[in-house]
Design brief:
Order of helices and strands of chain A: EHEEEEEEEE
Shape of chain A: globular
Low-confidence stretches of chain A: none
Number of strands of chain A: 9
Mean pLDDT of chain A: 96
CATH superfamily of chain A: Jelly Rolls
Structural class of chain A: mainly beta
CATH architecture of chain A: Sandwich
CATH class of chain A: Mainly Beta
Oligomer: homodimer
Helix content of chain A: under 10%
Chain lengths: 119, 119
């Protein structure tokens, strides 16, 4: 049987930015945590919508049409195929739910591409 | 384009217990909120794992092998096929992520069966 996960305790186990940690599986999806700070890369996911739930801090999801600003307890789903570039001006913790195998950089594979890690 | 969702604001729009509200879609999944209090019914979902993330309050997920106790910021995934009965001794807000069409009472359809509502 799976163990319960305390999000704060899980977040306390790592310090690096933009590398996602898997905390649970739901069918063929993964629930993941990440700490982010600074600007990521512009990219899109042609095969999946991408939800961002801010746990702490502030996340700006830059879209070609304008920015979406999220604080703690706020959720935004970037639709599949929509270019976006997350940015966090302070260290920010986010929760993600995505199909297994989703690449963090979508169609923009490069030096920011990092696989999902175990806690 | 979807709008961002503030979980607290979304929770403030309803008061009834155990009726799930859809706040976002991710592919063929729904992200939902519910307020719960009291005891639900024993049931299982043969076709899907079921994650519970506690936003506020305290949730006890009763399993045949023992209880899982969750507070704010704690997550537990009930595996598919596992009988469970959620209970909340105080009003508790939870976030769920499930495939569209998942029935809240799983295999125990009855007077506690309620479809997912729009916010």
């Amino acid at each position: 049987m799976p163990e319960p996960v305390n999000l704060a305790a899980a977040l306390a186990t790592f310090t690096d930015h933009w590398a996602q940690r898997k905390i649970a599986e739901v069918n063929d999806y993964e629930i993941k945590l990440a700490k982010v700070q600074g600007e990521f890369v512009w990219h899109k996911h042609d095969d999946t919508d991408e939800p961002f739930l801010v746990i702490s801090g502030r996340l700006t999801i830059q879209l070609r049409d304008g920015d979406v600003a999220l604080g703690p307890g706020e959720l935004y789903v970037v639709p599949r195929g929509v270019e976006h570039c997350p940015r966090a001006d302070e260290e920010t913790a986010i929760l993600l739910v995505e199909p297994k195998g989703t690449v963090n950089t979508g169609d923009a594979a490069g030096d920011r591409t990092v696989g999902v890690r175990e806690l």
